[in-house]
Fold this protein.
Amino acid sequence: MKEVVSDIFSRKAVRQSGSWQWLRSDFAEDFHQLTAAGADREDSGNEIIWNTRHKYTLKIQAPSGRVIAFKRYRTLRLFPYLYHTTPTAREALNYQKLQLIGLPMANLLAVGDTRHCFRPESSFIVTEFAENCQDGRAFYPGGELEKETAWRDEFCRRNFELIAKLHDAGIYHRGFTPANELWRPRPAPDEQGNQLDIIWIDVASCRRLPAAVLRRKIPDDFVNFLRFFQFPEETWRGFLLAYCRTVRIKRFEPDELFAEVRKRLSELQAD
């Protein structure tokens, strides 16, 4: 097992031929104690906050008191990961990259793969748990906070402003849904009057694309987000206008972007 302990994760820590793990300097001792005690196991008794056929995520309190989210893939397909990075390694690289361009990411603490002669067997990623947060599903039609329209609209507008930074960096999200953006009320509004803290999670699908391809894909990011709501057109146009005012690399005129998003939303609803 190759282990790297440092302050910033980089591709240099990743191995394709064998097992490896990267630990953030201030988390290494916690990690070793947790894994030695089996706290990362599915049957450890720690709270399971996400569970699918192939992976699970635990909420764990580390010995230092820090609360973490520990995601583990139980198994991995041989292809395409035999000679390519695993979803957790790719997600960790994206966490680091997006944080460096100024997006409000959950703090990356550890990541690693178990491999045998290149063959991927399992992988994990650990982030700091975003305390007192909910995701955007609370604002869905029928959701518990459906009527909190001021919070809902701020949540949408600010996420559209944030994804402008991603597109400016030449990156397509592909997983830009309200479930992958967390929020919590602020104790007091900030200088801009914002009432919410926003935190992004689950960025494994983010990809850098050639400029022409990215331009074709950008409307899909918005459609992927808006399809979960039933906004009147004037409402989501306002969110897109906030994006157009924020983005620095102008790939669309506002009316062109509105029309393309409207078209793709209509096609999706017709299917």
Q: What stands out?
A: The radius of gyration is 20 Å. The helical segments are 28-36, 87-100, 149-168, 211-226, 233-246, 254-270. The chain has six helices and twelve strands.
